[in-house]
Amino acid sequence: MQQDGTSRKPGNSGVTARRGDLFAPDCPTRQLLDRLGTKWVSMVVKVLAEDSPRTVRFAALRKRMPGVSQKMLSQTLQALVADGLVTRHVETTVPPQVHYGLTALGLSLESRLAALRDWAETHMPEISAHRAAEPGAR
């Protein structure tokens, strides 16, 4: 019998994961944190949010994200499009121009990422002090 707040997926051998059970591989929170927890995802979302509702061309996006390779940016954008957080529009020009923008779902994520950035900015001095006091910490 399945408990309220659990999910059962085909091929899951009857193992259920409670919502928010970060130790379970099929936990929705864990799956999204695995995807969203990269620096490139948060940077892409921030850049696209700054220009929203306008879209941003791939080349312009890359210029605004120092250090990202073309391959990594492409993979990050593909993942965000697949998750429904970003839209992709190709203009049939020569050469083709590819534009990206946030969906409503992506915009709702940006506000959460902004809260995390605010928390980090507020607490980074304290965290840095702990790191400096801890041998072997980076």
Based on the model shown, name its key terms.
single chain, 138 residues, alpha+beta, Arc Repressor Mutant, subunit A, disordered N terminus
Please state the second-level CATH architecture: Orthogonal Bundle
Broad CATH class: Mainly Alpha
What share of residues are in beta strands? 5-15%
Number of strands: 5
Structural class based on helices, strands and sheet pairing: alpha+beta
Q: If you consult CATH, what is the topology?
A: Arc Repressor Mutant, subunit A
Low-confidence parts lasting 5 or more residues at pLDDT below 50? 1-14
Compute the separation of the termini in Å. 47 Å
DSSP helix count?
5
In short:
By secondary structure, this protein is of the alpha+beta class. The chain has helices at residues 28-36, 39-51, 58-63, 70-82, 104-133; strands at 6-7, 17-18, 56-57, 86-91, 97-102. Strand 4 (86-91) and strand 5 (97-102) form a beta hairpin.
Description:
The model is unreliable at 1-14 (pLDDT under 50). The relative contact order is 0.11. It is globular, with a radius of gyration of 19 Å. It is 51% helix and 13% strand. A hairpin with a 5-residue loop joins β4 (86-91) and β5. The N and C termini lie far apart (47 Å). α2 crosses α5. The chain has 138 residues and is of the alpha+beta class. It has a three-stranded antiparallel β-sheet.
